[in-house]
Structures are given as C-alpha cells and as structure tokens.
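2024-03-11 09:14:02 INFO worker-7 job=invfold-0412 stage=load source=structure_tokens
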C-alpha cells in the first residue's frame, strides 16, 4: 500500500511528447531510466513547474546531454518529463516544505511514467535507474515505496545511480529491500554519492543528510582508501545553461569522508569548478545552500567515463549471471 495519496492528474505517458527521451525501436538488451535534476529555473514560474514550462524543458534537454549521455552505448534511454519543484524557489523553502512538495505532483508523475514504462515499453528487459539531485530525491521514493509495491519490477533492476542526494542509514532501515552498493559489480544495489571539497566538512548542505553513506566512484570502495588520479578516466565540466561539456586536462583524486558520507576531491586545483567559484555572483548565493566547496554540479561529470565503464560492467555481469543460470537450468 502506498504511503500517501496521489496529488493531481499525471501526463498521458502514452504520448511521445510526455517523454524527454523514448526510443522508437530499442536496440540494446538493457534500458536506462533517467530522472533529471532541478531543471526549472524561472523564478516567475509556479512552485511546481508544469511539464511544458519552457525553462524546465530547456533545462531538461541540457541535462540529458550533460548527464544521461554517460550511458551512451550502455542501454536504451527512457526519460519522462515530470512536474518538479522550481529550482530558484527551493532556497526560500524549509526542508519539510520541499519534501512535501516532492511527494505531491512530482511523485504522481514519476510513478505514472514508470507504470506506463513497465506495462508498455519494457518488454522484460533489465534496467538501470539513474537520477541527479531532485531527480535522485524522486528516485529514493521509487526505490523505496514504488518498488516495494512492485517487487516483480524490482527483480529486473541491474542497479540504481542515485547521485547528488543522500542515501542514509535510516532510509535503508525503513526500506530493507534497498541495498547499498559495496563494490564495482554488485547487482540490484543503489549507488550514491555527493561530491565536495575538504572545505565543506562541518558546513551544512542541502543534499548531504545526517547518516549518509557513499561509495567512491574511482576505486568503488566504501572505506577511506584514497583513490589517485590514475584511476580517473577523465573529467568533464558542464556549462549551464546549455548542453556543452568541456573535457578537462585535470583529473580528480578522491577519498571518502565516511563520517559525513561524501566523496571528497583532494586535489585543490579543482576548486575552481565548484559551485561557488564557477558560477560567479550566483555561486556566492549558493554557498549557504551547498557549502563553500560543493561539486554538486559535477557529481556526474567528474566521473563521467568511470560511471560509463561501471554501468557496462554491471550490465555485462547481469547477463553473465543470467546465462549461467540458464546453463544450470
């Protein structure tokens, strides 16, 4: 039984225009379902942006190129449009207000899109779930509540990349069917991290919750084993607004801050790509929300090729296990 009543009427997901990405003829044996982050950036728009809000549509298209492109060559990409909380208005809302808003129309839409996907588009293929920031907030609802109601769907999940939002110990206790990733090839798990500089330790962040846990995307360890630049397959920097990704000469080295539950970028020269330094005057206003050195804008791009390689490994492991099971049977 769902925890709350649904609010509002969802878009008609049988229509192509209700999807940011929906392949006509899927060609891969696995699917990717992607939920974009806060894309509505018009302060004049309502608190809950409709799916045809021009700011949100433009932002979602940009994020598809900046983030979902990580999964090029991995699977068939499905990305629904969904109503979401207006980004610029988040700063004036309490955590409780944001949480309540996300459990309303955004949840209605995302669940409806998944209902349509599994009933009409999936055709039995295994799938990866992926989200970022506000999209990962909704992904937390999907993994916890929706999949608890649909264990038959959940059996087909290769993994979930819930980036830019916290996976917490209380959440895992509430939803014991959700398992946190422990390595680079485990299946049916939730992979999560927030990326910061060491300067953020001790500072509040909108996306770092108490008792958060994370995995290091360079060495795929959950302890404080450092990961050197040699493990980084390449960093990109997202230019917002727009869809451009700049390939950087620098590569990141990382270590987990286990107490805070975040991935820490240890080479100081990367600080210029943090929210506060890369976004000019706007970045200064973001510091109270994310801290002095947050790489929330780079949770995907700093580890772009590492994520792609990891997704391929997990997909291959899935089909390898399926093949072995068939041989045993």
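2024-03-11 09:14:09 INFO worker-7 stage=emit residues=329
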């Amino acid at each position: 039984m769902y925890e709350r009543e649904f609010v509002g009427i969802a878009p008609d997901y049988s229509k192509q225009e209700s999807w940011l990405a929906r392949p006509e003829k899927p060609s891969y044996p696995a699917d990717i379902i992607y939920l974009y982050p806060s894309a509505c950036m018009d302060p004049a728009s309502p608190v809950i942006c409709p799916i045809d809000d021009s700011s949100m549509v433009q932002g979602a298209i940009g994020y598809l190129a900046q983030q979902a492109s990580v999964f090029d060559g991995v699977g068939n990409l499905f990305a629904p449009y969904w109503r979401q909380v207006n980004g610029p208005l988040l700063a004036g809302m309490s955590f409780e207000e944001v949480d309540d808003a996300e459990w309303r129309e955004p949840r209605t839409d995302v669940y409806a899109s998944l209902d349509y996907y599994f009933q009409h588009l999936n055709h039995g293929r295994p799938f990866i779930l992926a989200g970022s920031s506000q999209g990962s907030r909704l992904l937390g609802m999907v993994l916890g509540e929706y999949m608890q109601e649909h264990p038959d769907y959940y059996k087909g999940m290769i993994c979930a990349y819930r980036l830019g939002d916290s996976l917490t110990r209380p959440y895992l206790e509430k939803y014991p069917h959700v398992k946190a990733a422990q390595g680079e090839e485990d299946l049916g798990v939730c992979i999560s991290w927030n990326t910061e500089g060491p300067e953020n330790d001790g500072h509040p962040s909108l996306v770092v919750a108490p008792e958060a846990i994370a995995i290091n995307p360079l060495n795929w360890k959950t302890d404080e084993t450092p990961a050197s630049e040699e493990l980084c397959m390449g960093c990109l920097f997202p230019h917002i607004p727009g869809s451009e990704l700049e390939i950087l000469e620098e590569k990141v080295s990382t270590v987990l801050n286990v107490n805070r539950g975040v991935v820490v970028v240890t080479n100081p020269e990367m600080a210029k790509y943090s929210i506060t330094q890369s976004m000019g005057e706007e970045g200064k206003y973001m510091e109270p929300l994310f801290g002095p050195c947050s790489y929330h804008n780079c949770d995907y791009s700093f580890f772009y090729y590492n994520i792609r390689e990891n997704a391929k490994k997990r997909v291959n492991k899935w089909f390898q296990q399926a093949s072995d099971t068939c041989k045993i049977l």
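2024-03-11 09:14:09 INFO worker-7 stage=report msg="The longest strand covers residues 157-163."
2024-03-11 09:14:10 INFO worker-7 job finished
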